[in-house]
Design goal:
mainly alpha; 2 helices; calcium ion binding; Calmodulin_Regulator_PCP4-like
């Protein structure tokens, strides 16, 4: 399993550095994700659900 360095909001920094630009160049072009797999669909639904909850909470806190 490969390790990824956090970037953007996950790392708490939105500043780009030269090191981050280099890491973007190493991203494989082809991702082998089976979009027909039921587990993939379940994962996508779970991610979307959590994101919607986050967005709703964010809107409530601004008010």
């Amino acid at each position: 399993m490969s390790e990824r360095q956090g970037s953007g909001a996950a790392a708490g920094s939105n500043k780009t550095t030269e090191g981050q630009d280099d890491s973007k160049m190493n991203v494989p072009e082809d991702f082998d994700i089976d979009m027909e797999n039921p587990e993939t669909e379940k994962a996508a639904v779970a991610i979307q659900s959590q994101f919607r909850k986050y967005q709703k909470k964010k809107r409530v806190e601004k008010s």
